[in-house]
């Protein structure tokens, strides 16, 4: 199995059996973002304990890249501090996915990370005690 | 009937990409035969200079070549007068030229009637006029993907100043009855515009038989280079219109406070034109003519027939294709979904019943998966969002055919589709 | 310093036309080096497909090549952000784009200040706005062919909303002090536009040093293909502006009654762009960079110096040339008359004192005569009628130089001119 | 001497020493036409006798082609009927000049013929007895 095939398998596993899928009761914050052009949509739910992400879940619809990436992003986020999550670069996520995505599909891959970061940034802005 | 395998050899990109490469995105842009590539190079190698007013030999030759290209395109679409051919960048510019110049004459309350199957290029330029109080009205389609002529007829009113329709839909493949629509327009005193971007490349088109007032199309979709397109317009209308862009070539005289215009078509060609582009387009016209447009059309229909056969044969779960099944009124465009993916909007909520929508496979995944098998298709809204929404989806996958496609290409498409459906099903 | 004889060999047209051919019309359009011709062919041979949204490899490659061309052009003119580079057909379209989009914001009584040395492309688009009550004001030139800065300064007023000047005159060769003019514009709160059609090809140009708000130029005058040009604009201004043309690629979303726009620069690029043209232009930029723009400029100045020397040496009766003699503020453009040929107008009467005007030789005759010796020059008003009239003539002959011209070309020009003057004198 | 050289000589002779040059006293008709773009101008004077051109003269300014052609056109016109002159085709004049003129310079060559024909056509329209 080549590296790309392996990475494809990993992403497809996330897509077919996503981790952290489902709504969350009374999250600290939640946000729904979507791309009207392709219909990809991701809703992120975060529960914070102090500054740490205690729990994170998502629901969504869309292509394998956007949904597989959402599953991977939630895995990655759990247990991290808000600052750590805000510091995750798009390139870091793309490397984790590890597939040669063209510019169009990079947008799909980045939607979940953008949604999560926006969600947390908004928390900060709204001066919610975190 | 020409040998389509032989014809494919005229397109050097297939040698270079590997003979197994299946290009099914000609509705977006076509590949180019060697004769077109060579016509462009040769211009730069032997004849390059600016056109108009140069009185040295080289410039006169270039001017003549540019003029002959115009004549050639004029003949190709059955216009008896090359002065009716304005060279623009693409169909989009042609339609914008019309929206600006015809728009000057419109007033609040006037209506422009288009159809729900238009490409963005035949929607957005007209939306620009809404600020002036001009209303954009859409004729609907029937369930089979044909234009609803009753609906269209019912939306024609004394306020309808312009009726602008696509000849062939770039999503549904529907060939619209433009002669009939033109008659409705003219009986009503409306200006009749045809978007020929998907018809001129694929079937014999005669602007005088259709009796349209204007037609727009792009060179790059008909084996020609990027950067060149055509606005056909009836001479008496072009002569009456205000110019679109101002500058060199389009003037007769310029004084500090006013200018006078050159004759048509130069009046609409401001600045140095895409000379090499026009010459390349002319070479493309020659190439198409050598095959014969009847043959080009028949080949497209044959591939569509095979497509419908393969569709029935492979019976891919959830596969839903759009547009009329009668290949006599169908361009070589095949759009489909695997499972339903309705649009998602600002007021909607996501449900947590699992990823995706039912067993749907997103068109992006379909396209990526086909790409991995060396098959190029397009996925998305194909620059026709209102139609895509009308079909109650957010995106489709589209395979489109041209002269270099073979029956084997169609078979490979369906074999690969079947595999993709298995891989992505959950 | 590069070998200019060697450089000429990069331009295959000179091999094909015969090495004796002297092309002196680069201000109209330049010849193309092999690397540019090959970049265009190669795109069609290996990479051709449409850009944007395609998610198959070929389309992604084409999109990337198109984007890299934009970056390359951006770097070439010192813009730090490729989003500030809009691909258009030519300088003329760039200026029309501005006249339409900036024009939307102007109201009756507003003024646009240009100069009397503008090309029609920087005059006529602004004249279109006169219907709205907008006034076009011209800054004059001094007797030496330089811009009259005092006159310009005196014509700047609170009503001056736009100041648009050519960087280098295509007739006089004058290099205008654009940084200084930009300061005047910005101190006055006016938008500052530079027509770089004759500067970007011939000298190092840095839009951020100049601090212009917009700059327009054409690919075909800088060794690139026809059909591609550039509008540079400051990002924050482009973002605020209404789009120019509507259609595919320039939208984000389209609904029946409204649309949202793509980000800049795509917002201004409606329809399929001239992909091959942009790639060809990028190859031209690479080629110019390999010579070095300082060297290109120096070569032009050297040929101008030789021109002035030859002019003095040959001392052709009646020869009158225009523009500044200081080659530090002079592009490689040499316009001249042999004898005076004042304009002829509607209220004038002809006199019967013999044919022609004194001993004048009409520029058309000069050009034809030079053509017969294999020297291509242009004659006429050079798309600058207001300037031509300001010089009290109806037409001039223009020789213009570029990287493939040699000192021998200049000498041949004057030897042939001398002969023409003898043949046509009476 | 090649044919083109010979034709050039003929035209240049007409240009340097034009035939029928000068104003005419009390012509039956006269007309001035010019091309503002290049400044070529030709004024034609015709004296008719009945339907025949008894005398024709011109004055003008411009390039060798426009002025040489004017001289040739006046030579050709003298003694012809109005109908004959109206029947002269542009191609006939271009053949007479016999030089490979490009499209730009054809305009120069045809200005005198156009002026003469317009002048005569106007006479007809104005119902002057001819
Ligand atoms: C100063 C100047 N501006 C604008 C233009 C127009 O260029 P284009 O015809 O490529 O649009 C030219 C070229 O003729 C020019 O010299
Ligand atoms: C029906 C239709 N109209 C207009 C266009 C616009 O063509 P272009 O992008 O060449 O301007 C297209 C191509 O996408 C089309 O399919």
Could you walk me through the main structural features you see in this protein, from its secondary elements to its overall organization?
- The complex is a heterotetramer, with two copies of chain A (130 residues) and two copies of chain B (426 residues).
- With 130 residues, chain A is an alpha+beta fold.
- Chain A has one domain (3-124): Sufe protein. Chain: A (Alpha-Beta Complex), CATH 3.90.1010.
- In chain A, 49% of the residues lie in helices and 19% in strands.
- Chain A has helices at 3-16, 64-77, 82-86, 90-97, 103-125; strands at residues 29-34, 41-49, 52-61.
- In chain A, strand 1 (29-34) and strand 2 (41-49) form a beta hairpin.
- In chain A, helix 1 crosses helix 2, helix 2 crosses helix 5 (103-125) and helix 4 crosses helix 5.
- Chain A is globular, with a radius of gyration of 14 Å.
- Chain A starts with a helix and ends in a 5-residue tail after the last helix.
- Chain B has 426 residues and is of the alpha/beta class.
- Chain B folds into two domains: 4-31 and 292-425, Aspartate Aminotransferase, domain 1; 36-290, 3-Layer(aba) Sandwich (Aspartate Aminotransferase, domain 2), CATH 3.40.640.10.
- Chain B is built from 15 helices and 15 strands.
- Chain B has a seven-stranded mixed sheet, with helices on both faces. Chain B has a four-stranded antiparallel sheet with strand order 11-12-15-14, with helices on one face. Chain B has a two-stranded parallel ribbon with strand order 1-13.
- In chain B, helix 9 links the parallel strand 6 and strand 7 (214-218).
- At the C-D interface, helix 13 of C face helix 1, strand 3, helix 2 and helix 5 of D.
- The structure holds pyridoxal-5'-phosphate (2 copies).
- One pyridoxal-5'-phosphate (PLP) sits between chains C (27, 90-92, 119, 121-122, 166, 170, 195, 197-198, 218, 383) and B (248, 271-272).
């Amino acid at each position: 199995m080549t590296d790309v095939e392996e990475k494809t398998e990993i992403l497809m596993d996330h897509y077919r059996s996503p981790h952290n899928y489902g709504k969350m009761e009374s999250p600290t914050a939640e946000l729904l973002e979507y791309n009207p052009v392709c219909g990809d949509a991701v809703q992120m739910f975060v529960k914070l304990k102090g500054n740490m992400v205690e729990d994170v879940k998502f629901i969504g619809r869309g292509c394998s890249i956007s949904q597989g990436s959402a599953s991977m992003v939630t895995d990655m986020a759990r247990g991290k501090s808000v600052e750590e999550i805000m510091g995750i670069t798009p390139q870091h996520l793309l490397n984790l996915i590890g597939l040669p995505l063209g510019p169009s599909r990079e947008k799909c891959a980045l939607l979940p990370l953008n949604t999560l970061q926006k969600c947390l940034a908004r928390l900060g802005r709204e001066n919610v005690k975190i | 009937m020409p040998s389509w395998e032989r014809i494919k050899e005229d397109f050097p990109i297939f040698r270079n990409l590997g003979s197994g490469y299946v290009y099914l995105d000609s509705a977006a842009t076509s590949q180019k035969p060697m004769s077109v590539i060579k016509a462009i190079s040769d211009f730069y190698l032997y004849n390059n200079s600016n056109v108009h007013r140069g009185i040295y030999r080289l410039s006169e030759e270039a001017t003549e070549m540019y003029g002959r290209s115009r004549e050639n395109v004029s003949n190709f679409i059955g216009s008896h007068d090359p002065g009716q051919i304005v060279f623009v960048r693409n169909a989009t510019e042609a339609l914008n030229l019309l929206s600006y110049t015809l728009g000057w004459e419109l007033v609040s309350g006037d209506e422009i009637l288009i159809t729900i199957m238009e490409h963005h290029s035949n929607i957005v330029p007209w939306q620009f006029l809404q600020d002036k109080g001009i209303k954009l009205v859409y004729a609907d389609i029937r369930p089979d993907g044909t234009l609803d002529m009753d609906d269209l007829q019912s939306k024609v009113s004394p306020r309808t100043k312009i009726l602008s329709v696509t000849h062939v839909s770039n999503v549904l493949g529907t060939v619209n009855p433009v002669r009939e629509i033109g008659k409705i327009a003219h009986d009503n005193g409306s200006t009749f515009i045809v978007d020929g971007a998907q018809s001129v490349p694929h079937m014999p088109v005669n602007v005088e038989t259709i009796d349209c007032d204007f037609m727009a199309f792009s060179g790059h979709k008909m084996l020609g280079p990027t950067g060149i397109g055509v606005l056909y317009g009836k001479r008496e209308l072009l002569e009456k219109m205000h110019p679109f862009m101002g500058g060199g070539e389009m003037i007769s005289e310029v004084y500090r406070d006013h200018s006078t215009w050159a004759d048509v078509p130069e009046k609409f060609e401001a600045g140095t034109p895409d000379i090499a582009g026009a010459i390349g387009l002319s070479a493309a016209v020659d190439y198409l003519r050598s095959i014969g447009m009847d043959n080009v059309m028949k080949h497209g229909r044959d591939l569509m027939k095979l497509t419908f056969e393969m569709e029935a044969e492979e019976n891919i779960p959830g596969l839903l294709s759009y547009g009329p099944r009668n290949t006599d009124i169908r361009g070589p465009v095949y759009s489909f979904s695997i499972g339903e993916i309705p649009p998602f909007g600002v007021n909607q909520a996501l449900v947590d019943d699992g990823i995706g929508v039912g067993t749907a496979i997103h068109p992006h995944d379909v396209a990526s998966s086909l790409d991995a098998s060396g098959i190029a298709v397009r996925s998305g809204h194909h620059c026709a969002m209102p139609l895509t929404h009308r079909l109650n989806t957010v995106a489709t996958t589209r395979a489109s055919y041209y002269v270099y496609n073979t029956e084997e290409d169609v078979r490979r498409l369906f074999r690969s589709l079947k595999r993709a459906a298995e891989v992505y099903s959950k």
